[in-house]
Amino acid sequence: MKHTTTQQMRRGRGPARRIGRSLALVLPVVLVLSGTLAVTRVDWSGSSSSSPVLTAADASSSKASSRAAAARAPHEVLRDKLLTELQEKNPGVALTHLQEAVHDRPSLARHCAWIARELGRAAVRVYGPTRAQSYARPVCDTAFASGVAAAHS
Question: How many whole angstroms separate alpha carbon 63 and alpha carbon 45?
């Protein structure tokens, strides 16, 4: 019997070793799958919905909207936001927010004149040339006023 016990010890201590090897192979797979399931159950959109489960339709619409947002440059997003503000409030509010955005994110400075001209053109469409010109101020080297003039002529 002594000979058989020595052979089992050399082979890896019998059934305990086999169970350990099995766990070493199965446990990582279980952890990855449970982590994946946990991630899909989290509401990543930031809005609270009635169901905590992410459906396939939600996932595809989230991917599409994030691709669309990623495809748009920050200055285009800012321009659209400011054009909406111009229509809902007035050009003065939009110009103030443009100036604040450029101050907060200096990388937007190279697009400031373009955005201000777009705001000037939109102001002429919404308010007419005389009233739009009354909102002009020296934001981005008077680009707003040049946009008003370009849209009026």
Answer: 11
pLDDT band at 8 (very low <50, low <70, confident <90, very high): low
Q: pLDDT of 51-66, one tens digit each?
A: 445 455 555 555 555 5
* Ramachandran bin of 99, using left for φ above 0, alpha for ψ from -120 to 50, beta for the remaining angles: alpha
Specify the pTM. 0.54
Ramachandran angles phi, psi of 117, nearest 5°: -65, -40
CA atoms within 13 A on the CB side of 56: 0
**Residue 128 contacts by C-beta under 8 Å, 6 or more apart in sequence?**
none
142 class by beta-carbon count within 10 Å (0-12 exposed, 13-18 middle, 19+ buried) = middle
Cα–Cα distance for residue pair 106/86, rounded to 1 Å: 22
Give the C-alpha separation, 82 to 42, whole Å. 33
Using the 8-state DSSP alphabet, how is residue 44 labeled?
Answer: T
Give exposure, 15-49, as e/b (b: 16+ Cβ within 10 Å).
eeeeeeeeeeeeeeeeeeeeeeeeeeeeeeeeeee
**Closest alpha carbon to 94 in 150, 143, 153:** 143
Question: CA 73 to CA 76: how far, in whole Å?
Answer: 5
